[in-house]
Specification:
Shape: globular
Strand content: under 5%
Structural class: mainly alpha
Number of helices: 13
Largest sheet: none
Radius of gyration: 19 Å
């Protein structure tokens, strides 16, 4: 690992902003869904993210850093679309039908799903400790689902919404495992550019079709601010901060930051959206994060 920058406080400030931006994305997505239908929201976010990633790819690739052959393009495109477009479609459809807290803690299961997929592919060995962590995390999911059925919760989380969020995690987990070697060879900026630019091009006919019947004049500045936020911060800025910080900090320390997102997103949803936070839900979330931590430990 490199010696840290002269001002480590500035680096940790960037990392803190990254966690905040990712956590706030849950709330912003909820607000954006008040303005845009879910499929169109995904199309607009993907298109704007592609427009923002293109100059980043060009700037980072000066001098021929991003080298790939046209025969590799279909694989890069398919991988990127699963990791971004498919993942985001499930996420937006899911969060439209569940709470921010449910979505955040269920997405927190991603390391568990990655572990299971990698184990099935022979990339990981499932030790007793990892299996115990998986069991604890799944117990947390059970607690969260039992809380969902408690009376007097109103139009809260639905099992369909939670399942769609799990599908989002599955898509991202497949992207993580299948793209391990691809990312190592071509770099994250290349993979993300294929994801967003390629996804935008593939979605373009549907985007134009949905746009023809949508009243953009009624959107307003707040609605556009939500979409721009979703395209700029979690899709581009956070990834640039993450990989910059990873060049200075150990991967283990960076991975620990994932545990901050669910409680931060839950707190933000409580203050900004008025979503209820109950002891059973927090207990289930703690079990999920505890199980993920236990399964992720080495040894």
């Amino acid at each position: 690992m490199k010696h840290g920058p002269r001002r480590p406080g500035w680096l940790y400030g960037l990392v803190g902003a990254m966690v905040l931006f990712w956590s706030l994305n849950y709330v912003i997505s909820k607000l954006a869904l008040r303005v845009f239908p879910p499929p169109l929201l995904v199309c607009l976010r993907t298109t704007l993210a592609g427009l923002l990633m293109a100059p980043v790819y060009w700037w980072d690739g000066r001098g021929g850093r991003h080298r790939w052959h046209w025969r590799e393009a279909p694989g890069l495109l398919a991988l990127g679309v699963v990791g971004s477009t498919v993942n985001q479609m499930f996420f937006v459809l899911g969060i439209a039908r569940t709470s921010v807290a449910h979505a955040a803690f269920l997405i927190g299961l991603s390391p568990i799903i990655v572990l299971l997929v990698a184990g099935a592919r022979g990339q990981e060995h499932l030790t007793a400790r990892k299996i115990a962590g998986i069991v604890v995390a799944l117990c947390g999911v059970v607690v969260i689902q039992v809380w969902r059925t408690v009376p007097d919760q109103g139009a809260g989380p639905s099992i369909l919404g939670d399942l769609l969020i799990v599908c989002s995690s599955l898509a991202f987990s497949f992207f993580t495992v299948a793209g391990k070697e691809v990312t190592r060879t071509h770099g994250t900026i290349t993979v993300n550019t294929f994801a967003y630019v390629g996804g935008a091009l593939l979605l373009m006919p549907y985007t134009l079709w949905k746009s023809a019947s949508f009243d953009y004049a009624a959107v307003g500045s707040a609605g556009w601010a939500y979409v721009i936020y979703m395209a700029l911060f979690p899709s581009v800025v956070c990834y640039l901060i993450f990989y910059y910080a990873l060049s200075w900090l150990p991967a283990s320390r960076m991975s620990m930051l994932n545990y901050l997102q669910p409680p931060m997103a839950t707190a933000l949803s409580f203050f900004l959206l008025g979503e209820p936070v109950t002891a059973p839900m927090l207990t289930g979330g703690a079990l999920v994060l505890g199980g993920v931590f236990l399964a992720g430990r080495s040894g």
